[in-house]
What we know:
Blueprint: E1 7-9, E2 14-16, H1 23-26, E3 39-44, H2 50-56, E4 60-62, E5 73-76, E6 81-84, E7 89-96, H3 99-109, E8 119-121, H4 124-132, E9 144-147, H5 187-198, E10 202-208, H6 217-226, H7 228-231, E11 233-235, E12 239-242, E13 253-261, H8 267-275, H9 305-309, H10 321-324, E14 361-363, H11 373-376, E15 383-384, H12 387-393, E16 404-405, E17 412-414, H13 416-425, H14 429-446
Parallel strand pairs: 3-7, 3-9, 7-8, 9-10
Antiparallel strand pairs: 1-2, 4-6, 5-6, 10-13, 11-13, 12-13, 14-15, 16-17
Helix pairs in contact: 2-14
Amino acid sequence: MADKKTYKHPDLELVSDLVAESLPLFYENGDKYYDPNSLNVLSLFSGCGGMDLGFEGQFICHKKSVGKNKNWIDKEVNNNWVLLKKNRFNTIFANDILKEAYYTWGRYMKRFGKHEDIYHFASIVDLVKMYREGQDVFPHNVDVVTGGFPCQDFSVAGKRKGFDSQMSHDGHKKEHDEPSEETRGKLYYWMKQVVEITNPKIFIAENVKGLVSLGDVKDIIQRDFEAAGNNGYYVFDPQVLHAGNYGVPETRERVIFIGIRRDALNDKAKKIFESGNIPEEYNPYPKPTHNFNVKDLNLATPITCKDVLGKLVEPEFSHDLSHQLYSKAKYMGNHCQGQSEINYNGLAPTIRSEHHGNIEYRRLSKEHGGERIDELSKGFRERRLTPRECALIQTFPPDYIFVHYKENSKRFQVSGSGAYKVIGNAVPPMLAYNIAKRIEEIWSLYFE
C-alpha cells in the first residue's frame, strides 16, 4: 500500500506524498551554496528549469536514477529517494515566454538563493533587441550558455514546419507569410546571437530527435553555431541522447549540440582540437549510466515507471495539488495520440506538452484494453496521468511545486493545464545532470 505520510511547509504550501519525513532538511537558505569557484550559466528557453536544475544539482531523485554512480549522492532521503550533490554550476540568468514557467521556476529555484529578477519573462528576440538598443540585459562573466530552443516545429509528433514555422518568437501565430528570422523555427539563430554577445567557453543547445531527420536542418544549425563569434567555436557533431540510458523512466530522445570556444582552450586542448582527432577523454557527451538500448550489461538496469510512481497514493487521497488534479478528458480510442496506458513496468512514452486529451493514461479500464488487472480488481479507476506523475517520469524532484494557488487566494497561479504544459516542455533534470557532470569532468582538460 502507498505511503500516505505528507509534510506541509507552513510558508511554502509544500506537500509531497513521497519524501515527507525529510523535506525540512533541504529547504534552507540558498546562500550557503555560493561557491567562488562556480561556473556561471546563462539559461535560455528555460521553461520550468529542467536543464537548470540538472546543472545546479542538489535535488532529490529516485535512488535507481543514479545507477552505479553512488558518488553523486549527497545523502539518502529515505529508502527510495536520495539527494544529489551540488554541481559546480550557478545559474545567473534565465528566460521564457510562459508565465507558468516563470512562476514554477522561481518558486523552486529560490532554495538555491536565486532571486526572481534573474528570470526574464520575455522572448529571446526581444531581449537581444533590447541589448542592441543599449540596454544592459545580459550578465557578464558567463561561462556556459544552455538553451532548448523551441522544438514543436521539428518534432515528429508535430506538423514539422521546421524553418517554415508559422509561429512567431512570442508564441503567437504570424499574421503574414513573409520570411523572418523571428519565427519559432529559427530561434536557435537568436541563441547564437546571445552566444556572440556573452562569449561563453561552452554552449549546449537541445532539441527533439526529429530535427536530425528533417532535411539538412541539423547541418545548417551546426554550421551557424560554428560561425558564432567569427568562426570562434568548435561544434561537435550533435548526438541523440536517449533519456532511458540516463536514469529517466521515459523513451524521450533529444539531440544535443555542444560548442567549445576555440580561443579559451588551453594549449594542449587547442592542439588536439586542431588535429581533428579528438580522443574519447575529450568527448563532452556523457556516457550512458543505464542499459536501456546500449546493450551493456555492466550498466545499471533501466529505472521504470513503477519505481517512481509505485509509492504514490491515488489522487483522491493525496494532499499534493499537482497530484490531486488531472485531465478528465474522455477516452477517444487507440487510433488517437495519448490514448494508451503507460508501460508501468518499463519506460513511459515521451511526456508531451499537449492539451488534456493527449495526456497518457496511468491505467485504462479493462473495456479499453487496460493491463493493470491487479489495480482494477482493487477498484482503482481508469484515469490519465496527473501532473505529479508526469513530473516524476521526467525526473523532477517530488518536492517541486507545480500546481499552486495565488498568494492569499483560491485562484490558481499555475493550474493543472499549465503544469502539464511546462513539464512536457522540459529537459529531464536527470538527463541534464548527466550532461552537467560530464562538462564538469572535462572542464579542466579544456580550459585550466
